[in-house]
Write a structure and sequence with these properties.
The chain has 902 residues and is mainly beta. The protein contains 10 helices and 50 strands.
Length: 902
């Protein structure tokens, strides 16, 4: 038979996997018009969550697929370069492997680790912000006309719940909550990510999940508002930044309304009019998951305006963000705001954003600006991702909800499975979250320095959070000069390691690691420059590791040196002597520090730094010149062990006033151009540098074929063309596939980054050749191969391919798994011949056929085997599939018949 169909194409030779039908089970390549997609189908449903699902190939990020409504199917449109990189396909989300659940760390080694025994509780702090205040509270809601946001087809709701104190005098500080990415609509036990919600379904009220937190803050005198973002959640799958800019726009839309209502109270909705007036000079932003990234961007956009074309709020900034609280946040752009104080809650049993990438809100601020803002990481042992929101908590939520930490009944996790000693209940977790949100408000907004010790690594606890064990470390505030491995530094007796590098000898965490580290969470590139730590490994005590910065540091006036040190999970009693040496060669041992590892397993990100402080009094007694300290030494005193030094700072108590620096802001854009019929054009990646002053960013340019990234350090100033990335686009009249040239950027010093990702896409503008299929040997004797010829109407610069699935025959016996070559069956489906069954009943069985670039024909075959069983003629039918894997309507159907050889 003969047929024509718009089959898939890509602009480079495919991998051997595609030619030999060896894509892993669950993977296939499909077509939709002239677009080619890589499709993965998960057997269990993947719930809609905050971590983005990513396809990786050969250890590098291939792209972010779109999720189908069924919750099982994920599709990534491929470009020319992707075709050469389909090796070692993997699916990840937030550091968690989805296509091989048994391999849940990037190190891939599974072990049965027993969680360490919990130590004694930390001493109580001077204040306990988790205690309710003296105000009674009132609750109300408002629902305003929806707003339109750039890049989103459907309007986004302006709905919120307000909780505020009653009988409070004068304007009150405002705390705004933004929930994360969750299912949007539900009916009974079914939930979807649709927007708007289809008829017969209800919106999931995620915005009402923080009422307990709001009530605590309201009792302490805060006006609180929690806003709904379902309209963003239902549409952010297509946003290159995961919806961060849209969420920022929504937050600032609400803040603008509150500024209007503060100026004109009579114009406010009824729920707001009965509340105290909000003081917009004192704003705290609280965001959960992608909501955390959203409020971080809102804080940035409030200081450094984004490009108007991508912003959904164009009015003046009539508010002042004093701080942010980020709960299990994403940070796809790795672009924290350095001069806005932050507290980032890291749930130790997070099953969604399980790499705890929110640590970058702390680590990523080092050296970017003046370092006066406190950035705290708050590690909550035994907490999962969802239970900070009651509407995401089973038994409390109106809609379907679940525990995001997947519990395998056959492989109980010693740390995070429900019922384990370290796992928190939903109520315990939510109480801890409320307490530390209130702690951040007490410090950042109310200015009570007594709350600092609960956030800055001093080692104090808020009893209201008991029995949760909460640990903290921080950068910024009164910390002075620091030993930082990111810059120019010399290391002896240890290894200067890279946070992200595919080479085990260079990476900070080796292949023997059990679990992951929040400090080493991956970004867009397979390798990063300048993001480092100092790795120590010893088999006997006594050998010092020495860190020497390029220039001497001044520790004058600091009572202590604060170190952030990682030790392996579940380890106990790692001891290190700490010493410093000045430029005159005088050396003093400051003291000995001891660190215990966090409870961890191969499914947790428990390689997390403990803050350890050692007094500088010994250096003063020894007569060291603390104005000129040239090196830091760490000498192991325990037996064999490992440790990683993240940094060390001159530490002073206190919370200084923060003044936002006038930084330059960098935003990348994306340019799409048609290739044309002839000639060569040079196009530039759109870059906008705004703001004030100058600074440095690191620019990574991705090779569209290999996926490798080349990076360079660039100094930028507003109004200058400092980031110049040129792309050559060559025109022709042959079909090919779009070629995408990606660029990503990260702040280094004196800058902030809004849109971190951009590039140039060269669009194919030539029609795909027509495809015909004719039989070569479609009626054969068993032991021979069924064969069909696939022919193009003209050559292309891309491989033209199609995916066929086996469909039931229309009459007579069907070929079974025992009638075909078992090697072919394994390659095509991963299945075995036994038990014998019709080919159309083999899950994931598919045949990929391709016409190589520059040629016009190829063959597709099904090899059969000869047996001794006498049987009637059997047949098989192969149908071209569409993007969902279903037979393409009107597409070719190949029918073959196999005759008995006896």
């Amino acid at each position: 038979m003969t047929g024509a169909s718009p089959l898939a194409a890509h602009a480079a030779a495919p991998t051997r996997e595609a030619h030999e039908n060896t894509l892993p089970p669950g993977w296939r390549i499909t077509d939709e018009g002239t677009a080619r997609h890589l499709v993965w189908r998960s057997a269990p449903e993947i719930p809609m969550g905050d971590a983005r699902v990513e396809f990786h190939a050969g250890g590098r990020l291939l792209g972010v697929p779109a999720a189908a409504r069924d919750g099982h199917t994920f599709r990534l449109e491929l470009d020319a370069g992707d075709a050469t990189r389909l090796t070692d396909l993997q699916v990840w989300a937030g550091g968690r492997r989805l296509d091989a659940p048994g391999d849940n760390t990037r190190q891939g080694r599974r072990g049965s680790l027993a969680a360490a025994q919990p130590p004694a509780p930390l001493p109580a702090g001077a204040v306990d912000p988790g205690k309710p205040g003296s105000y009674r509270t009132a609750t109300g809601e408002y629902d305003l006309p929806s707003v339109r946001l750039p890049g989103f087809k459907a309007p986004v709701e302006m709905r919120a719940v307000v909780v505020a104190p009653t009988a409070a005098r004068g304007p009150r500080p405002l705390a705004l909550f933004l929930h994360g990415r969750h299912a949007t609509c539900y009916k009974g036990a079914d939930a979807t990510g649709d927007w708007p919600c289809p008829a017969g379904t209800k919106p999931i009220p995620s915005y009402r999940g923080y009422l307990r937190d709001q009530q605590l803050l309201a009792s302490q005198g805060y006006v609180t508002v929690s806003v709904s973002a379902n309209g963003i959640n239902g549409q952010d799958w297509a946003a290159e930044d995961g919806g961060a800019q849209a969420r920022s726009s929504l937050v600032r839309q609400h803040l603008a309304r509150w500024a209007d209502w503060a100026a004109h109270p009579a114009a406010a909705p009824a729920a707001v009019r009965k509340m105290p007036k909000a003081d917009l000079s004192k704003v705290l932003l609280v965001g959960h998951s992608r909501g955390g990234e959203g409020v971080n961007r809102a804080a940035m956009d409030s200081l450094y305006p984004p490009p108007a074309a991508q912003d959904g709020y164009r009015g003046p900034v009539r508010w002042h963000v004093r701080g942010t609280v980020l709960i299990g946040p994403t940070i796809f752009g790795q672009n924290p705001v350095p001069d806005v104080p932050s507290a980032t809650l890291l749930p130790g049993c997070d099953g969604d954003v399980s790499d705890l990438q929110g640590e970058v809100y702390v680590d990523g601020t080092r050296g970017v600006s003046g370092g006066r803002a406190l950035h705290s990481a708050v590690y909550v042992e035994g907490a999962n991702h969802n239970f900070f929101n009651t509407e995401w908590t089973p038994g409390k939520a109106q809609a379907p909800a679940e525990d995001d930490f997947f519990d395998d009944p056959d492989h109980k996790d010693p740390v995070c499975s429900p019922g384990s000693r370290t796992r928190l209940t939903a109520d315990q977790q939510h109480r801890a979250g409320s307490t530390y949100i209130a702690t951040a408000a007490r410090l950042f907004v109310a200015g009570d320095d007594r709350a600092r010790e609960l956030l800055d690594g001093t080692g104090r606890r808020a009893p209201s959070a008991d029995p949760a064990r909460v640990l903290t470390h921080a950068v910024g505030a009164q910390r002075g000069a620091g030993f930082l491995p990111d810059g120019t530094v010399g290391v002896t007796g240890a290894r200067l390691c890279s946070a992200v590098d595919p080479r085990p000898a260079v990476a900070c965490l080796g292949e023997d690691a059990h679990g992951a580290s929040p400090h080493f969470a991956r970004w867009e590139t397979g390798r990063e420059t300048g993001r480092r730590a100092v790795a120590l490994r010893w088999s006997a005590p006594g050998t010092p590791a020495r860190v020497q910065p390029a220039a001497p540091l001044s520790l004058t006036g600091a009572p202590s040196l604060a170190l952030r040190v990682i030790v392996p999970p579940n380890s106990r009693g790692t001891q290190l002597d700490v010493a410093v040496t000045d430029t005159r060669g005088r050396r003093a041992v400051l003291g000995r520090v001891t660190a215990d590892g966090l409870p961890g397993s191969d499914r947790t990100a428990s390689y997390w730094a403990r803050e350890l402080r050692v007094p500088l009094t010994a250096a003063t007694r020894a007569g060291l010149d603390l104005r000129h300290v040239k090196s830091l030494e760490l000498t192991p005193r325990s037996r064999a062990g490992q440790a990683w030094l993240m940094d060390a700072w001159a530490w002073r108590p206190g919370t200084p006033a923060v003044r936002e620096a006038p930084l330059a802001r960098v935003d990348l854009g994306r340019l799409s151009v048609k290739e044309g019929d002839s000639g060569v054009r040079t196009c530039r990646v759109p870059v906008r540098v705004s703001g004030h002053g100058g600074g440095q960013v690191r620019v990574y340019v991705m090779d569209p074929v290999t996926g490798e990234a080349r990076d360079r350090l660039v100094t930028v100033r507003p109004g200058r063309d400092d980031i110049a990335v040129a792309v050559r686009v060559e025109g022709n009249k042959r079909f090919a596939y779009d070629v995408t040239h990606d660029v990503v950027v990260k702040a280094v010093h004196g800058t902030v980054v809004g849109s971190h990702r951009g590039g140039v896409t060269a669009l194919n503008d030539d029609p795909m050749p027509k495809v015909s299929v004719t039989p070569v040997a479609d009626r054969v004797t068993e032991g021979q191969a069924l064969r069909w010829k696939v022919t193009l109407s003209e050559p292309a610069d891309a491989e033209i391919g199609a995916s066929f699935s086996v469909v039931p025959v229309t009459g007579g016996p069907e070929l079974s798994t025992k009638d075909v070559d078992p090697a072919w069956l394994r390659e095509a489906s991963g299945a075995e011949p036994d038990p014998e069954r019709p080919l159309s009943q083999v899950e994931y069985l598919g045949v990929w056929v391709s016409v190589p670039a520059g040629t016009t024909s190829t063959e597709v075959s099904v090899p059969t085997v000869k047996d001794t069983v006498s049987e009637p003629a059997e047949s098989v039918r192969l149908a071209v599939t569409d993007d969902s894997g279903a037979p393409l309507p009107g597409g070719p159907v190949l029918t073959g018949t196999v005759l008995d050889a006896s």
